[in-house]
Amino acid sequence: MNLDARAIITKIKHGETPSLEELNWFVKGLVDHSVSDAQAAAFAMAVCLNGMDENGIVSFTTAMRDSGDISVWKTDKPILDKHSTGGVGDCVSLVLAPLLASVDICVPMISGRGLGHTGGTLDKLEAIPGLRVLLNTDELQTVIDNVGCAIVSATSDIAPADKRLYAIRDVTATVDCLELITASILSKKLAAGLDGLILDVKCGTGAFMKSSSEARVLASALVKTANLTGCKTLALVSDMNEPLAPSSGNAVEIKDVLDVLVHAKVGRLKDLSLRLGAELMKKNGLCDTVKAGLVKLNKQLEKGHAAETFAKMVSAMGGPSGFVDDWSRYLPEAPVISEIFAPKEGYISGWNSEALGLCTVNLGGGRRVETDKINPAVGLSDIAAIGTRIDKSKPIARIHAARIEAADQAAKQVLDAMEISDKPPQTYSLIIEKIE
User: What is the pLDDT of residues 328-387, one digit of tens each?
Assistant: First the structure.
């Protein structure tokens, strides 16, 4: 059978799904460049306009996964991971990975950089001096063997077909395609050789999906596809109408992570981390009930075991060995730290979280273009939660900036992003839905 990119694209154009053999051939062509940029763009647009059936999505995802290396781990422990669709103040990975590792679960977490208004886990980790997120296969295996978890960037050998196709999608208005998003996310995660995966699909003002219905559709597609490939997967749809941690930035979010790991600080970051971990353990038969998982993981926090694991991970990846004991000594601090006060009394009834994330980007804590250099010290901290009663003598947030002028501009953006009401706002749930 002679395969041809044009014939495969034509099939999709006519609403048909190519066979597994055809999709495997096309994906190999993405890697060896026998498929041209024009053909890859036409393929992406055809899928975007006409979709793919369930079998096609699974076949395309596995082909993308198999386009590069697939990790094989030298351990009998379960290999589990988590993926988030991104939000503001979302530093769950930095809490959850060491938390799971502290109960004898291996977590080889492939993470990403900041995207748009959302922060990147790797950028946050790199606020720690000396820490390296790009590890080769042997280095990563050593960290997993000695610590149980590592949070690293994907090498060029992980799902290389996705890397090429994503770059083309980015410039051809085909990023927001359910089938392509599903294959892109899962191809990289499944290449890590996982036994199980939990997805945190966010919705709200700080998420890419603004409505719960959009989030539900994506979560369902990801869960169904991953389970059909043999990876035990479930998803939680979670709220992102305010920052998850009370900060937005890199070093400032590391401080929030350590508040949870070291002091078991109560809040949304702790709650979601525990729930994701417990649901993942239950799904993979590591606890009888979600409640039992929550109790076990919470004990690990309170006894300091998760903090110890985080400290070992930081040291094993090149960071300071005493980081967790004295993190303020190591984390960079912005030269300008100023407080923001609300213009009137009342209750904070809402945040435009995307605007808060963009404020951090404007301060230098994120990237407008890929080549921008991040300032790890800048951002927002101590952001008051929705429902907070405003006291005009107390700040509703703090700005960490490189210059006074940047701090002044940020203060205006933060106040514009805040909604104030005369009465307390209605309470809402952090977890909106579970999808299995």
Answer: 999 999 999 999 999 999 999 999 999 999 999 999 998 877 678 899 999 999 999 999
Cα(432)–Cα(366) distance, integer angstroms: 28
Q: Within this chain, do residues 248 and 103 fall inside the same structural domain, yes or no? A: yes
- Catalytic residue IDs: 81-84, 121, 169, 184, 188-189
The tens digit of pLDDT for each residue in 55-93 reads 999 999 999 999 999 999 988 999 999 999 888 999 999
**Alpha-carbon gap, residue 211 to 208, rounded angstroms:** 9
SS (H, E, C) 38-56: HHHHHHHHHHHHHCCCHHH
List the CATH number of the domain containing 122: 3.40.1030.10
Residue 184 shares a structural domain with residue 123: yes
Residue range of the domain that includes 380:
333-421
Judged on CB neighbours under 10 Å (0-12, 13-18, 19+), 211 is exposed
Q: Cα(150)–Cα(311) distance, rounded to whole angstroms?
A: 11
85 and 231 co-located in one domain: yes
Going by their DSSP bridges, the two strands 397-401 and 379-381 should be labelled as antiparallel
